[in-house]
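quick one before i forget lol
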Amino acid sequence: MIDKNNIPKHVAIIMDGNGRWAKARGLSRTDGHREGTKRIKEIVKAAQDLGIKVVTFFAFSSENWSRPKKEIDVLMRYLNHYLVKEVNEMNKKNIRFLVIGRDEPLPPATQRKIREAQKKTENNTGLTVVLALNYGARQEIVDAARRFALDAIDGRVEPKDLNEEMFSKYFYTAKLPDPDLLIRTSGQLRISNFLLWQLSYAEMYFPEKFWPDFKANDLKEAVEEYQSRERRFGGL
């Protein structure tokens, strides 16, 4: 049974296994990505129903640009569709939409759609849905350090005052709580340069299912597993 008083505020998800899911069925990798996109909508609804406040999906990493151009083009097409149709649906449901990651080298049209989607939903007060897009955690740490250094040069901050709380304000996720729970599908036991700073005390859950097979009930099981653990944050 789900304890409504112990729901993770922020769930981060690495959506792994689209290609292997498709290969096992004799389908193309793009078929796997199309099916994986459908799961996002289902998991967003399930997160709302559970009372989760933030869900972050690792949609496209900064390393994914090395994939075949055909596959990248398909992913960008699915993304553009999502930024129009699905964000309109989310807006009707009081969901706030955010993207974290670098703008470049995303296509200018995609960057414009991202800005429009974020602007449209910025005042919504329900679930926050975050896409990590053209994202890498090491680049995020470098970007945060660069922004802090520029503020120090301009006299807005003193380097001697730097601490973890202050530094966190320079991250892409500055206005979000750190994840309480990380889910990576497909059984792979790694975090692949995802939210390295923010995941310091997150509980981690690695189901064997490929992402296209991860359904609402699987999210519920992940939350139940989270609730069965004792979080100590470095203490006894």
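fyi The chain has a mean pLDDT of 94.
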